[in-house]
Amino acid sequence: MIKREFLQDHKSLDFKFYQNVDDFIVEEVPIKFAGRGNFIIAKIKKQKLGTWDLIESLAKGLRIYDNELGYAGLKDKNATTTQYISIPKKYSKDLKQFRHNKIKILETTLHGSKLNIGDLIGNKFEINLHEVQAQDVGKIEKLLKQISKVGMPNYFGFQRFGYDGLENLEKARKYIYEDYQIKDRKISKMLVAAYQSDFFNKWLVERLKQSDDSFKAMDGDVFRDYREDKFFTPKNFTEIMQKDFEDKKIVPTGLLPGQKAFRSIKDARKIEEMFDDTYIKEKGYRRDAIVYPSDISVSFDKNTNKCKVKFTLPKASYATVLIENIANRNLKA
Q1: For 242-258, b where at least 16 C-beta lie within 10 A, e where not — what string?
Q2: For the chain, how long is the longest CA-to-CA vector?
Q3: Same-domain pairing of 252 and 181
Q4: Staple partner for 114: which of 70, 75, 168, 320, CB 3.0–4.6 Å?
Q5: What is the 8-class DSSP label of residue 117?
Q6: Do the beta carbons of residue 268 and residue 276 sit within 8 Å?
Q7: Is the pLDDT of residue 333 over 60?
Q8: CB of 314 within 8 A of CB of 148?
Q9: Its biological function (predicted)?
């Protein structure tokens, strides 16, 4: 597994980070719901349950198929998380009777369609860092402000690759290139996604080598327009485009190799093609190279040496990567 590198080259900060229900709190920032329609949107708080565990528990409790339920994103198991789940309106009576010791339905509204992956704006995080030195609190605050300005490299975090990351990547390689059988379609999709993500992370490390204090956009990059949410590749990278990038109107993207994904051109392609794989038959994607944390706050309890950091990240980005960026060290492989 490649070591995740960052734009800030400071001495590593020595603190402890734990993922548990007290120290890792996540709340989904939802899209705007219609307030009417054939689907109940339930705001649900859960502990020690992953999203798939939540879906399984809800389906069992409501006596329905799990594919009738919709969700916008996957949330960690070892955390206290709040997320939105869509349920067909016809099960409203059953939902009112639903009880589970790790699941609490906070509120409900209505919407016109089932929730799908990506139907969210982002996530709010509240994370406790332990054994923080008092002199490092100011450094943490300064780093977070700097990262919010220049952006955080949008790596896939260690969770993407599973507990046995290297072993999972090898299984994915055998599944793609050899006659390695995986009966569970969900597992095979997860392994291939991890394999694609590893290419992206390696590409991002290489691109950071071409950058200094901020990410360097290149001629031939595929950009995403934030407002239109569309990809485009300009014939030439101009000063106006550089200004748009600095003003956070557009962002360079990296490739998750696969079918039907845009490829970069020119100088950007020379780097990208080293981390491409046209043999992968699954759908490919592009992912923002950097993301910008917002709503940042830092507080410190000198009696416990515990530092609480709060921030919001766009969807599909990892809070653990931001913690790594602050610490300037990888938490796990």
Answers
A1: eebbeeeebbbbbbbbb
A2: 60
A3: yes
A4: 70
A5: T
A6: no
A7: no
A8: no
A9: Responsible for synthesis of pseudouridine from uracil-13 in transfer RNAs.
Residue 307 lies in a domain: no
Q: How deeply is 227 buried, as exposed, middle or buried, from its count of CB atoms within 10 A (0-12, 13-18, 19+)?
A: exposed
Report the number of distinct structural domains present in the chain. Answer: 2
- Inside any domain, residue 43: yes
On whether the pTM is more than 0.90, the answer is yes
> What are the residues facing 83 on neighbouring strands?
44
> What is the spatial distance between Cα 170 and Cα 196, in angstroms, rounded to a whole number?
12
24: amino acid identity, one letter: F
Catalytic site residue from 9, 22, 76, 229: 76
What value, to the nearest 5°, has the Cα angle with vertex 144 and ends 141 and 149? 130
- Residue 164: its pLDDT value, please? 85
pLDDT for 192: 93
Does the pLDDT value for residue 196 go beyond 60? yes
Segment 246-250 mean pLDDT: 97
Rounded to whole angstroms, the Cα distance separating 134 from 122 reads 31
Query: Is residue 76 annotated as part of the catalytic site, yes or no?
Result: yes
**Residue 249, amino acid:** K
Number of DSSP helices (H) and strands (E) in the chain, helices first: 8, 15
Residue at token pair 């689907």: 39
